[in-house]
Every structure is written in C-alpha cells, then in structure tokens.
C-alpha cells in the first residue's frame, strides 16, 4: 500500500483527485461515462448515479493507494486501487462500486491484479440486476446476433456465446462464433496477447467449443469483432 491523500474531487465513477493534485484513475473498473465538456459525446445511462455513489464513498476522506501493474497512464493519471477507512474497516472502492452495479470490470494487459474478486462482485450485481445491470444499455449481448452487435460498434460490451472454432493463423488467434467469418462475430488475439496466455500456461485453442463471455470494444472488420489483448477478457462459462 502506498501513500495516498485526501479526496478533494470526484470527476466521475472511476476518477478522483487528491489534495496534492494527483488524478487517480481507479484501475480495474469502468464506470458509466460523463460527457465532461466533450462535444458530440452522450453521457452514458446512470453516469451521474455512479459519480454520486463514489463521492459518497470517498469524497473528503483520506485514502491509500495500491498498485497492480503500470502506475501511470499516457494522460499522467495515477493508476491505482483506492482504499478508504470506514468504521467497519478498510473499504476497497473499486469492489464497492462494482458490487453496487455502478461500474464494470475493465482490465488492461499491464494491470491485471485482483480481477478475480472484481469479477465475482460484478457477477453478483449482474444477477441481482443492480445499478447499470437493470438498464438495457449495459445488457450482455449474444454472439449469435451479429446485426445487433454491429449496432454497438464503438461501445464496450460483454458478449456471450460458444466458440465454434479457435485457430492460430500466422501467430494471430481467431475465435469464430459463427460459420461466416465475414459476417458473424469474431474475437481476435494478436501476438502480444498470445504471449500472455503462454506465460500463464494457457492454450487459447482449447477454448474451441467452450461457452464464454468476452468483454471489450466492438469494431467492424468483416463483421462485428472484439480484440483480445489479455486473458482476463475471456471468462469461460462452460467447457464443451
């Protein structure tokens, strides 16, 4: 645990400012986004509720910081887990926000610690329909509905389906969820992500036939697609 400070501002549901001026991006989570002055940006549903919930947790309080990988992003923000003392003990702000259904798990290849606990909290919130999980904007999408996924291009989504075929072509792994690679949903893993799988002792090709949940940003390249940059983007729900 590292030295933190007093929270003097809550920017949104996953960003705070300390009294020494440091901006803390709460790593491991993604809260609904506010426009924050950006033109042509629509505030996501429940963004204000998420910001208020985080303010209720930490605003005006002293916090400590924990790190699980890279400590600063390209914007100069500190990437940290945020801990605040309460009468009941230490509260992990990320876990509390995810458990309340006011943030999703959002990980990076260079920051992968403590995700199992966050996934567990997210699962409970989703099953209970808490917070964002009661809003169709955040619904888990189905891999066998590519047209609906194309409507979500540019959005961060959770997509569930069974991997019809997993194959390595030239060092790039493709997870095909349908028979038409030009139309159906596909997840793609480039060489750096494959190296992370190998380092973890995992073979992504054994996922062929598995029912999975994939999270990431949807793009459109020969049909809807998500790029896999690290193993935690894939949750295995059931094997073949």
Account of the 3D structure:
With about 240 residues, the protein is α+β, with helices and mostly antiparallel strands. The chain folds into two domains: about 1-135, OB fold (Dihydrolipoamide Acetyltransferase, E2P), CATH 2.40.50; about 140-240, OB fold (Dihydrolipoamide Acetyltransferase, E2P). Helices cover about 20% and strands about 35% of the residues. The protein has helices at about 45-60, 95-100, 115-130, 145-150, 190-200; strands spanning about 1-10, 15-20, 25, 30, 60-65, 80-85, 90, 105, 140, 155-160, 165-170, 170-175, 185-190, 210-220, 225-230, 235-240. The strands form three sheets. Strands 9, 10, 11, 12, 13, 14, 15 and 16 form an eight-stranded mixed beta sheet that branches. A five-stranded mixed β-barrel has the order 1-2-3-6-5. Strands 4-8 form a two-stranded antiparallel ribbon. Helix 2 (about 95-100) packs parallel to helix 3 (about 115-130). The radius of gyration is 19 Å and the shape is globular. About 40% of the residues are buried. The model has no long low-confidence stretch (mean pLDDT about 95).
Euclidean distance between termini CA atoms? 41 Å
What best-fitting shape do the alpha-carbon axes yield?
Answer: globular
> Sheet bearing the most strands, described?
8 strands, mixed
Classification by helices and strands: alpha+beta
Number of helices: 5
Mean pLDDT level: 94
Low-confidence stretches: none
Strand element count = 16
Proportion of beta-strand residues: 35-45%
Q: Mind telling me the C-alpha Rg?
A: 19 Å
Helical residue percent band? 10-25%
Instruction: Write the CATH architecture name of the largest domain.
Output: Beta Barrel
Number of domains: 2
Order of helices and strands: EEEEHEEEHEHEHEEEEHEEE
């Amino acid at each position: 645990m590292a030295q933190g400070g007093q929270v003097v501002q809550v920017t949104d549901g996953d960003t705070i400012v300390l009294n020494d001026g440091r901006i803390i991006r709460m790593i491991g989570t993604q809260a609904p986004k506010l426009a924050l002055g950006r033109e042509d940006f629509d505030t996501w549903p429940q963004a204000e509720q998420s910001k208020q919930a985080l303010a209720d947790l930490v605003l005006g309080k002293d916090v400590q910081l924990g790190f699980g990988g890279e400590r600063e992003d390209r914007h100069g923000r500190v990437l940290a887990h945020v801990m605040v003392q309460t009468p009941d003990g230490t509260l992990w702000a990320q876990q509390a926000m995810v458990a309340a259904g006011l943030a999703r798990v959002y990980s990076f290849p260079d920051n992968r610690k403590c995700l199992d606990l966050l996934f567990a909290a997210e699962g409970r919130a989703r099953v209970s329909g808490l917070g964002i999980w009661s809003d169709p904007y955040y619904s888990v999408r189905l891999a066998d509905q590519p047209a609906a996924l194309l409507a979500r291009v540019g959005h961060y989504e959770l997509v569930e389906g069974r991997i019809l075929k997993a194959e390595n072509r030239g060092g790039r792994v493709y997870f095909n969820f349908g028979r038409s690679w030009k139309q159906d949903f596909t997840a793609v893993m480039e060489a750096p992500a494959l190296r992370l799988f190998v380092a973890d002792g995992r073979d992504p090709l054994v996922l062929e036939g598995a029912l999975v949940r994939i999270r990431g940003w949807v793009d459109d390249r020969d049909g809807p697609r998500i790029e896999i940059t690290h193993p935690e983007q894939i949750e295995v729900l059931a094997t073949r």
